[in-house]
Structure prediction request, 249 residues.
Amino acid sequence: MSDNPRVTSGIPGLDEMLGGGFVPRSAALVRGAPGTGKTTFGLQYLIEGVQRSEPGLFVSFEEFPQSLYRDAASLGWDLPALEAQGKLHLLFTSPQVLLHSLAAPESSIAQRFQAQGIQRVVIDSLTHFTQHTPDPQELRAIYNQVVNALRREDVTALYLAEEMRSDYTSEERGRLSFVVDCLIMLRYLEIDSTIQRAMTILKMRSSRHDTAIHSYAIGPNGITIGKPLEGKSGLLSGLVKRSMISTVE
Prediction:
């Protein structure tokens, strides 16, 4: 393992789950259904970087700038002010343009990494690349191209993606979960007739990590991690049952 310090997430409770934070220069995938807080997760990670003098870049394929500014403001984050100060950078583009830019060392995005000292990157979202090709092998090559290009830029990257039921199996088209170093799953669960959010780390290379499924909440300051969900089974499948716990006298 590297002696370098970990890259903190900015999400209370998550660094403990990650064994101290993200491994430097790693690629982490955050996957979940719409509304589970993936974009909030990514922004919170970048805001943490701003506070640690680690400039960040948010790449969006779907959000309009004003929509992203408004959502961030509701959580207390002034993105235009951070942009003006050169601490945070936003790029609104298409998957095709990003692929072309990452393949060209002289492109504006490559120059931006060097000129602005980018250390953290969030891409929202990799799901858009599934529309680029129906061929699983070509899709796998695209994923590798994106991830490897950002590795070369020496950044710690978060990739957001929509959830599929086969996310953590060998059936996943393109097998994105095999390309990244860390996989975090966000889920909606129905427990005791109420809807709760749950988060778990399905894999993390080069590090120990918490394997429990934790509740989490989204509040005025973003995401906070709650206690592990105990006494239940079938959480990842969505078929939640009470676990039978017996004691031996």
Observations:
- The chain has one domain: 14-242.
- The CA atoms of residues 7 and 22 lie 5 Å apart.
- Helices lie at 14-17, 38-51, 65-73, 79-84, 95-103, 108-116, 136-152, 176-179.
- The domain at 14-242 is CATH 3.40.50.300 (Rossmann fold).
